[in-house]
Write a structure and sequence with these properties.
About 65% of the residues lie in helices and about 0% in strands. The protein is an all-alpha fold. It has one domain (about 10-150).
Length: about 160
């Protein structure tokens, strides 16, 4: 049995909304949080480094990633590269700031801040997986395309392409 045809407009809208859901965390919310709460962001970055200049640099780098890479994912301009950078960003932030294994009260039952951090860690990894699907395709079929042309587009809004 063949799949029913969806209109091009609906297909484009669904693609845009799916990508928007992936990047919404970063642009505008996390990026704006870094701007409006810069001191708090630097304090959090200071958990990874005691050097205040480095902590501020980390925030500015993070802010740049959170503004420019989502735009690439949304527009389809170098979206493979943008998605790959965001995947790495999610993994790095999970490893640096979601260290559930260092929580003294990690427990499977009852109140546990360690378990809450564990779920945040897994959410970061899950979002990274979503971005990797954009970068290399849903089944890895575009990994060579990404390696040979990392700044290429998946052409997400093209009516002639399968999006990989």
């Amino acid at each position: 049995m063949s799949e029913p045809m969806i209109s091009t407009d609906v297909s484009i809208l669904i693609t845009f909304l799916a990508r928007l859901l992936l990047v919404l965390l970063f642009l505008p919310f996390s990026a704006l949080d870094k701007v409006f709460n810069f001191r708090s962001a630097v304090a959090q970055a200071s958990e990874a480094t005691s050097n205040q200049t480095m902590a501020k640099t980390l925030i500015f780098v993070g802010l740049s990633v959170e503004v420019f890479m989502p735009l690439g994912v949304l527009t389809g301009i170098a979206d493979r590269f943008a998605a790959f950078v965001l995947a790495g960003y999610c993994i790095i932030t999970a490893l640096l700031w979601k260290q559930f294994w260092k929580q003294p009260d990690f427990s499977l039952r009852g109140k546990s801040s360690g378990r809450e951090v564990f779920w945040d860690f897994l959410k970061n990894l899950a979002v990274a997986g979503g971005f990797l699907m954009i970068a290399i395709g849903p089944n890895g079929s575009s990994v060579w395309r990404f390696i040979h042309a990392p700044f290429s587009s998946t052409h997400p809004y093209s009516t002639l392409s399968a999006g990989i």
